[in-house]
Structures are given as structure tokens and as C-alpha cells.
Amino acid sequence: MPIYQQSLGIALILLFGLLGGKLAQKVKAPMVVGFIVVGLLMSPSLLHVIPEQLNDEFELIKLFGLGMIAITIGGELEFHKLKEIIGSIAAITILQVIGTSVVVFCIMYFVFGLSLPVSLILGAIATASAPASPMANVREYQAKGPFTSTLLGVVAFLDAACLIFFAIVMAVSGALLRGGSLEVSSLLAPIMEIGGSLVLGAVSGLAILFFARFLDQKIHILVLLIGFVLLNSGIAQVLHLSPLLTNMTSGILIANLHPTPASLLHIFDDIDLPIYLAFFLLAGASLRIDVLIENWLITAAYIVARGIGKVGGTFLGARLAGSDRTVQKYLGFGMFSKAGLTIGLLIIVQKTYPEIAPVITAVELAAVAVCSVIGPLGERFALISSGETRFGYGKKEVAN
């Protein structure tokens, strides 16, 4: 029986989500997997407990959840602490984008015979990651150290690199579809989105730092942060910017200008579990099983190709940068998740090139469904293998 009242919906989300998270822990899986699986079970695709109408009404929870995660990730990027690994982060990000896009393109174009524009765009979107899941796993497993810092750094910069690369591919694909005419506007729009998001996030971060000086109670600072996360996300949406990059930029500014950034942003620790729970459960409720079933073969090939590109590109980038063996071996397994940015890029494809959007949409939505589950498992494996969690095992390996 579908639940249409918001109070009942929120109650079921919190209670069943918590149950799913605890059951996931019992089988040695991240709580995030439990949240997503419960959401999938309650979705219109299966038990239809949470109908699409109610899921849409909870959009504010998703928006705030993503904003809170983004500003928290930014808050982890204290540059004076990252100076020894910033080269690794840059190399891994670039090589991962190249490796993932090339492998996916080759499989889609040469094996499945998809058109050149479709294969190029699928390769570009494959580079997108999802910062929410790695951040949730870092928190759950209390991971801390160079490996964890590298993971969060790559996740933070990866989406910006993906947007730039996607802009280039979209322009090239448009030229192919039009018979050779390359439009500069196709390149400028995403680049302006990145620039505008950085400016808005920087202004907001400075404002947070200014007003926080006059607040001495923890609860008041929490209200300030919640207000600015929502303000960032709302203004970004109105201006067609990225709420993710905007909030992440605010977090980076706080991390590098506040004398004790942890004391400021860790205030979210008091409320993050119910927000994470609702965010991931609603993400699970948005997944479409029918799309996955209809496109299972090409989706399976896409996911495998993307995984090979992510792991291979990360390994190569880490190897060239002289990173620890632990980073070389395991970091790529923490990059499988994909969600919010993928959906945003799909919307751009649908609006810009509707003639090729259906096949791209089908493959990407099906891949999101699978990667939403396998992504957190890969992140758990990577974090625990690094030896930087409270469950860490083994000795960390360093390059000779």
C-alpha cells in the first residue's frame, strides 16, 4: 500500500532505513548499502511503498544531503596537509578521466557498434563519480590518513574535471551530428557553470567565516551552516550552477582560512546519520529496475569497462606520481559510485541532443542502479585495505 503522507513517509524512511543499515553491518557491508537496498525495495519499481510523487516531494532532503556532504568534503581539503599528495591527486584525477573514457568508448563503439557520438558521450559520463558515498563510508569506518585524504581529494576534483571533459565531448559530438560544425557555446556553458559555482562558493565561504566569529554556541553555528548550505544550493539552482561544486568550494575556503576548521564543520556530526540515511534511501527509491532489466547486457559491459578504466587509470596516475603502493593498488576500487552528477549530465544530453538521448539515458540509469550498490562495497574494500580505518588490517605498503 503506497504511503502518500509526508509524516508517514519520513517515519518509514528513518525506521526501515536504520533497520536496513544495521542488517547491512551484520553481513559486513556498509550501512549505505542497507539504506539504498531498503529504498529500492520501497520504490515504485518493487513494493511501491514510496510512490514517485512522494519521492519528488522529498527533493529538499536530497538537496540538503548532497550540500552537507559536499561542504564536508571540501572541509577535509586543508591544502597545507595535502601539499605532499596534491601531485598524486592531480595525476590520478587526469589519468582516471582519460582511462575510464577510453575504455568505455572502445567497448561501446567497437564491441556494441553504437554510433560515434553516443559512444563518446557514454565515455565522458562514465568518468563522473559520486562524492556522497565515499564520504559516508569514511565517516562510518572512521578512516583517516594519507590514503583517505587522497580518496577525498580525487573525489572532490574529479567532478570538476568530468564537467570540463564532458563539455569538450559534447561539443565534438554536436559537430559530428551536424556534419562537422563545432559550436563554441557548447564548450562555454559547462565552463561558465564551474566558474560561477567557484565564485558563489567562495563568497558564501567567506560569509560563513565572518558570521561564525559572532557565534559561540554550537547549536547557533549549526543553524548558520544549515542555512548557508541551503542558500548555496538554492542560488546555484536558480543560476543554473552546480550545488555540489558551490558547497564544496565553501568547505575548501573554511578548511584553509578558519583556524580550527574541524571544530566548525564537524558540528554536522550531530545530525549527519538521519540526513545520510534519508539521502541514500531516497536515492535507492529513485532507481528503475525495469530500465536495468531491459538493458542488462550493454549495462553489464559498460559497468565492467568503467571499472577497468577507473582502477587502471587510478593505478597508472598513482604510479606515475610515486604514490604509496596502497594508493596504487586500492584507490581505484573507491571510485565506482555514480549518481547525482550523472543525472545532471543526462538532463543536458536530453535537452541538447534528444535524437541520441534515449540509448544514453537507458544505459546510464541502469548503471546508476547497479553502481549505487557496488560502489559502497568497493569503497569499504579500499578503505579497510588501506589500513586507515578502525577496522584496518595488514601493514601499509609504500613504494620502494
Give the secondary structure arrangement, pairings included.
Layout: H1 6-26, H2 31-42, H3 52-57, H4 59-75, H5 79-82, H6 86-111, H7 116-126, H8 132-140, H9 146-178, H10 184-212, H11 218-238, H12 243-257, H13 261-265, H14 272-285, H15 289-294, H16 296-320, H17 325-330, H18 340-352, H19 357-386
Structural commentary:
- The protein has one domain: Na+/H+ antiporter like fold (Up-down Bundle), CATH 1.20.1530.20.
- By secondary structure, it is mainly alpha-helical.
- The protein is globular.
- The chain has 19 helices and no strands.
- Helix content is 76%, strand content 0%.
Number of strands: 0
Shape: globular
As an assembly, this protein is single chain
Q: What is the string of helix and strand elements?
A: HHHHHHHHHHHHHHHHHHH
Q: Mind telling me the C-alpha Rg?
A: 20 Å
CATH architecture: Up-down Bundle
Mean pLDDT: 87
Fraction of residues in helix? over 70%
Number of helices: 19
